[in-house]
Amino acid sequence: EVQLVESGGGLVQPGRSLRLSCAASGFTFDDYAMHWVRQAPGKGLEWVSGISWNSGSIGYADSVKGRFTISRDNAKNSLYLQMNSLRAEDTALYYCAKGSSGWYLNWFDPWGQGTLVTVSS
Amino acid sequence: EIVLTQSPGTLSLSPGERATLSCRASQSVSSSYLAWYQQKPGQAPRLLIYGASSRATGIPDRFSGSGSGTDFTLTISRLEPEDFAVYYCQQYGSSTAITFGQGTRLEIK
Prior knowledge:
The complex is a heterodimer of chains A (about 120) and B (about 110).
Chain A: E1 3-7, E2 10-12, E3 18-25, E4 34-39, E5 45-51, E6 58-60, E7 68-73, E8 78-83, E9 92-99, E10 108-111, E11 115-119
Chain B: E1 4-7, E2 10-13, E3 19-25, E4 34-39, E5 46-50, E6 54-55, E7 63-68, E8 71-76, E9 86-91, E10 99-100, E11 104-108
Parallel strand pairs in B: 2-11
Antiparallel strand pairs in B: 1-3, 3-8, 4-5, 4-9, 5-6, 7-8, 9-10, 9-11
């Protein structure tokens, strides 16, 4: 069974940094792209970033470009999101999701349960 | 980036009725790279449809997807009580960014 478990969320002040992690199991991690998707309280889904199987292709939403960095460690079956210069509008539940292939432009299945990031002073 | 507009925002129907949800793209979605997800309160989204019309594993056949280019539709043939949820479309055909629609809330009438 595929499992994705996010961690690292919490309360952080504006302008500070946070690093999210996603531990994957139940599939061959280095065969698939991985993604971060967020959902602000009571709002819809927003794709944040995606990374191909070998980290050779990476994409970001315009709203986080230059502030967030996605990475992966295939030896540890783990995905990361380094979030710098956080803003109030980054407050959301952050989901980790498995891509449908090694290339990062794909659909997502399954999703983790999410980790909550709250940016507030 | 490709903007996806879903309609209606809210759809009120009764169990047993047919639901038709629309997703319109601001430009053509290449190779019908469009997916649909269902999200229930307090849960992560679940994949229903990919490639515009292919059902994901374990999804009942009352769910079907259709469309191409800029107009896509998710149809639920006969609503079951567990189908009342929020539905999102997603395009993954752009060379630069993946985007989601704003969602359609399907509620019990």
